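User: two proteins, same treatment. go.

Assistant:
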Amino acid sequence: RKSTFLSLSDEHIRGAPAALPTIEDIYAWIFKIYSAAKMSAECNIIALIYINRSLALSGMPLGAFNWRPVTLIALILAQKVWDDTSVRASCFSSICPEYSKDQIKRYEIAFLRNLEYSGAVTRELYTRYYFELRDLFEMANHGHVFPLGVLTQKRAEQLEISSCGFRMQKRRKRRKEKKMRSPG
């Protein structure tokens, strides 16, 4: 399990910073991806859920060499689940040129394995993360209003349906891959 997560590493990139990132580094990285891919704000919360789930299931912490690819892939998967249209891997490799299209695809597969192919996000889980982030934001920004509103009932239902459908899609894909590998 841990070896899968280790494959999500920046170590191969010459000049990749070896120090842990600052809050500003993390913000700049996420903002670059978020704005270039024109993601919905909700994708950030879903990505955080995926990162936490992946870390819990793999037992590996985020570190200096894996936080960027882990965050990138979590955002990509969140966009696939939430947004009506998602950006292709080739576009993400132009947004983040330090990663090739093939690397992004390999990272995505490793990350999905860490998630045990579960992209499901319940409205309760999303809501818990939303309010925790809102509280942190408002404490750090001296009471300023969190820029993202609460999900409507309809949007919460859409999230559950699309994220559960995401899990089923990956299961079918795995079954299809197994059939292709097994002798006929």
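Protein 2:
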Amino acid sequence: AVVSTQSGHYGREDLLYIMPAYHSKFNDEESPMIGNIAFLPLRTTVKGPAPRTDSEEDIIDETLNYFKANVFFKNYEIKGTSDRLMIYLTLYATDCIVKLQKSPSKNQAMKDMYSLAISRFSLPGEAGFPLNSVYARPQGGEVEKMRSYLTQCRQELGQRMVEKVFGDSDKPSKWWTCFSRRKFMDKTLTPLGQHI
């Protein structure tokens, strides 16, 4: 989108370019939900309730591919249930980077990601969840299904994040760790006062 200043002229110095955030392509697909989060298939070997897919890109790939661009946004328009999952995974990816920058080796990083993924976390509707205003509280049997699904997503994202951040090296890439202080939408999944 192009926005003009009040001059009425469209000279080069008068234009302001607004970069839009990236949204999930899975918003266009009909998918089941848990609460109001899309329940999407994953390309994974991690045990959990998510259906398996062989497609080249799943929601985790999409989140990691758009992470470096989306993390700069303080506001994010939710265009569908898949965007809610992408928001959650982007916030979790930031937590992963904070943890990975402290990992002394790639092997230890894998262990750290597993520990972080299975650690206690808040679901929508619970006190520690950062975006309760736009996420629906899971009802009845959905609570355990959502916890299991998000744990599976967290484990898979953590494994892929280690590969991106470490690559073939035994040290984390500064081109990823430099994002550890960024807060997507000015939020974090880590409760105030708790350290990762």
